[in-house]
Structures are given as C-alpha cells and as structure tokens.
C-alpha cells in the first residue's frame, strides 16, 4: 500500500462534471482523489444491458475526460468484478473515503453494492453515498415525498470547481478486454451523441426553439422526434441531473410565454422521479408481477408471435415502424412505447417478461426505475392503473395520418396510398399490384385479428381484476406507492 492518502469518486449513472455532489465532497477534503468507472462484468452480462448502453457510457466518459484534462484529471476505467477492483484499489493504495451517488438499479447492481459495502466496512473505510434526483432510500411509503422532491429541485445547485492534480494513473490488471474495447468504441451515428456537452446542447435547443409545441406533438411518432426534449438519454446516464433540467427550464426567459408546454415538461420530470422511487422501494418490478395476483393470469406462449414483434414484421405498420425505428435509433416517444408493450401483452397475449429485456436493450435511454414500472403498467399487471389497450390502427390514423413515419421505416409500403397505409391488407390484388407490394409476401399479413384478440384481451385482463388476490395486492400497492402530499 502506498503511503499517500487518497479518496475515490466512483461514477455510476452520473457521468457529468457539474452539479455533482461526490466531486464537491472530494474537492473539500483537500487530498488527492481518483475518479473511476467500473464496467462490471456481471452487470454487462445481465440481460438488460446492450452494447449501445456501454457505448454511450464510454463516449460520455471520453467527453468528461476532455473537460477534466486541463486539471490533470481523468476518469480511470476498470473492467472486471467491482469487489475485486475495490480489493485491489484498497490494497495497493491508502484509500480513505469513497464517494458516489446512490443508484436505483436492478437487484443485481444492488447486490454488487452490498458486497462492496461489506468489503469497505471490513477495511474500516467510509463510503458516502449521495441521494440522486430527490429519490429517497429506505422509505416504506410516499408520505411527504412530493413536497420533499420540490424542495430538492429548488435548492441551489452545486457549481463544481476542480483543483489541479498530478496523480499518476494507477497501473492495474483490470484493463478493458480487446473485445469490449472494440464494442464500445463503435458508436452509431444514428444514436444521440453522448456526453454532458451534448446534453446541454439538446436542452438549450428545446427551450429556445424546439419545445414550443411539446405538449401538442408529444404523441406523434415523427414530429415528437424534434418537439420532445430528447434529453431522456442524458438524464438516464447522468449527463444531466433532473435538478439541472428543472431549474434551467423553469428559470429560462422563454418560460412565461410557453408555460403550457414547459409546464407539461416539468411535470414529466417529476413523473420520471416518481417511477424511479417506486423501483427504489420495490425492485422486484424487474422480475415479478408487482401485483402478485397477476402471476395467476395465464398467458399463451407463441414464439412466432414474439419473433415477429421483435423483428417488426407483425403486419401492423405502426407497430413495425416503431420497432424498426427503435432498433436503429434507440428512441421512440412514450405513446409508441406503450403501444408496443400493449400489443405484445394484450393483442399477442404474451407474458410481459418475454419482451421487457428486448426493449431495455433497444432503449438508449434505458432507466431501470422507469422501464420496469412503466412496462408493468402498460401490461396491466399492477391492479391499480387503468388498463390501456392501444389499438395500433387507431393510433396510426390518429398520430401518423399520412403514414409518413410508417413509410420512413417500412419501405415495403413506400408506394401504398394514404387510404390504405394503416391497413394495407385491405387492398385488392389490383391495388397491391399498383403499389408494387404483395401483402403476405413483401409485407406480412396481420399475425392476429385485431378485433378478436382485442376482445379476448379486454375480457381476460378486466376479468382478472376481480381476483381476490389481485384486490388484496392492490391495497398493499396503494399503501406503499401512492403519493400522499
């Protein structure tokens, strides 16, 4: 162990340099500190993680390192088992404190944190974790949560400053594997660019121009790609904090003349944290029906249906366009996400767990605390939320009336006229010939009958709400997760 005392700032979903409590605390201590990020092998192998997530993280770190370079600092990247890495760090250096944010991740990440905590405790080292985005750890109900959240959002933000540090980069055996290095370096131009500086660029353009019709176009699959803030990915990986976004929009000169759209945006920032708080209290959302009564609900098992849904070849143009756009770009709007889940669980009658990791992998803005509670809400397995069964044809006609979004992502239908773009199977053979597409060959027929499958879904899901166990669990969920002031 070296004689020089050092601290460690452990980055997780907080890949930024500003409004950052662990950095502030490390600077206050007036001793050198290392900044580390761990690509934990167990988390990388967890089914919720995909290469696009790792790529975004890595490129966010590169952005941080460019900003920290003038201070002689950098984020040191480790790859391996987090416990082994901390064992190595604390054995080879005189570590005094570890600083990080609390992470509301999957149970797997929580288990890793507990092991790291045990190790540090055994070595009489202090690990100080800071609350993130108004999320409270260890609460058993939501009493007072809303009030406390607003208090947190309106507190003065941290303006981080960095001292210059000449601390040698630690030589270690936890280098990135060649395979992982190759994977994370290749970042698609179709994804949003990573990093804190791009996060601010997106937020500023939203408030200065793009967001004026936010609430009017939020459900449109095409227009929302511009009118929405598009900062969800930056919030998920911590390039921005919720507090930064909240105060920037609320205090912006354009706020008063755009109170309706910007007010709706601020409300959704609160919803964002509301769902993460649900997951913080009950991370079983990832693997179990949060209302245990729905474990008794029988679903069919059809691998052909599942494959068609995943590949965007269900025969329903908007469903397929959304899945293909998501695969290619990592983003679609909230309503289209809800429709994909609804179609899987209701029209195809598949268990939500068969699709939950697939979409987690595709979402560049994957946030466990939002993903799993929202997925179950749309799947109708909470017992407390209204069950919404999104008719994909109606959604298509309402939100992509001219089929522009559909044709962008389903080129097989590029020549289909507007009156048939939402239900191409209704075309006569002559009309198909005119449009140069054969339904059933170039583009599939619908894999299920919408009317029949919708009727069956409503009967099943609404009928099951009367189950005694569902009702009992409903009361427990309300006591635990309902916001009370």
- Strand portion, in percent? 5-15%
**Secondary-structure class:** alpha/beta
Question: Kindly, what is the distance between the CA atoms of the first and last residues, rounded to a whole number of angstroms?
Answer: 51 Å
Count of alpha/pi helices: 24
Radius of gyration: 24 Å
Mean pLDDT: 95
Strand order of the largest sheet: 3-2-1-4-5
> In which range does the helix fraction lie?
40-55%
Largest sheet entry: 5 strands, parallel
Q: Could you list the spans in which at least 5 consecutive residues all have pLDDT below 50?
A: none
What coarse outline follows from CA principal-axis ratios?
globular
Total number of β-strand segments? Answer: 7
Explain what you see.
This protein is an alpha/beta fold and 485 residues long. Helices cover 50% and strands 8% of the residues. It is built from 24 helices and seven strands. The strands form two sheets. The chain has a five-stranded parallel β-sheet, sandwiched between helices. Strand 1 (5-11), helix 1 and strand 2 (33-40) form a beta-alpha-beta unit. It is globular, with a radius of gyration of 24 Å.
